[in-house]
Design a protein that fits this description.
Elements (H helix, E strand, L loop, with lengths): L2 H17 L8 H28 L9 H63 L38 H10 L11
Helix pairs in contact: 1-2
InterPro entries: MADS-box/MEF2_TF, TF_Kbox
Organism: Hibiscus sabdariffa (roselle)
Protein name: K-box domain-containing protein
C-alpha cells in the first residue's frame, strides 16, 4: 500500500473517532473501544507529523546517529526517484520538441521551395519584359450593394464613384511614348 494512502486512511479514521457523534445505541464498551482506537490513531498521527518534520529538516536534535543515517537513506532514495521521474519527463519533452523542430524544418523547406518557384517566375517575366505576373489567388465575389430608396426631400444622394478610372489609366500607360510613364505624369 502506498504511504500517502495509508496516511489518508489513518487521518480519516482519526477524524471519525475524534469528531464523530455518539450513536444512540452505542454501549459503554463500544465507547471504550472507540476511545482506544482514538488513542492509537492519535499516536500514529503524531509519529507521522514528527516524520514529516524530520523530512523537512526540522526537529532533528533529538535523533541519534543511526536514526539520522536511516533518514538520510530514505531521503536519498526519495531524491533518486524524484530525479528519475524528472529525467523521464525532460526526455519526453525533448523528444516532443525534436519532433516539432523536424515538422517546422519541413514546413520551412516547403515554403522556401514555393518562394524560389515564385521568384523564378517573377524573374523570368521581368526579363521578358512583362509588366504583370499572374496572381493565382482567386478573389472572393463581393456582394452587390442593395439600391437605396430615393429620398423625397431637399437633399438627394449623388450617383458617382470616387477613385481612379483604371481603364483610362491603363490606356494612357499603353499609349505613352516612353512605355513606362503615362503622359499625365510627365
Amino acid at each position: 500500500m502506498k504511504p500517502n494512502c495509508s496516511i489518508a486512511k489513518t487521518l480519516d479514521r482519526y477524524n471519525r473517532c475524534t469528531y464523530g457523534a455518539l450513536e444512540p445505541g452505542q454501549t459503554e464498551m463500544d465507547t471504550q473501544s472507540n476511545y482506544q482506537e482514538y488513542l492509537k490513531l492519535k499516536a500514529k498521527v503524531e509519529v507521522l507529523q514528527r516524520s514529516q518534520r524530520h523530512f523537512l529538516g526540522e526537529d532533528l536534535g533529538n535523533l541519534g546517529s543511526k536514526e539520522l543515517e536511516q533518514l538520510e537513506h530514505q531521503m536519498d532514495f526519495s531524491l533518486k526517484k524524484i530525479r528519475s521521474t524528472k529525467t523521464e519527463l525532460m526526455v519526453e519533452q525533448l523528444s516532443q520538441l525534436q519532433r516539432k523542430e523536424e515538422m517546422l524544418l519541413e514546413n520551412n523547406r516547403d515554403l522556401r521551395r514555393k518562394l524560389d518557384e515564385n521568384s523564378s517566375t517573377v524573374r523570368a517575366s521581368w526579363e521578358t519584359g512583362e509588366q504583370s505576373v499572374p496572381y493565382s489567388h482567386q478573389a472572393q465575389p463581393q456582394p452587390q450593394p442593395q439600391p437605396q430608396p430615393q429620398p423625397q426631400g431637399f437633399l438627394q444622394p449623388l450617383q458617382c464613384t470616387i477613385g481612379y478610372n483604371i481603364q483610362a489609366l491603363t490606356d494612357e500607360a499603353a499609349s505613352a511614348q516612353t512605355g513606362f510613364v503615362p503622359d499625365w505624369m510627365l
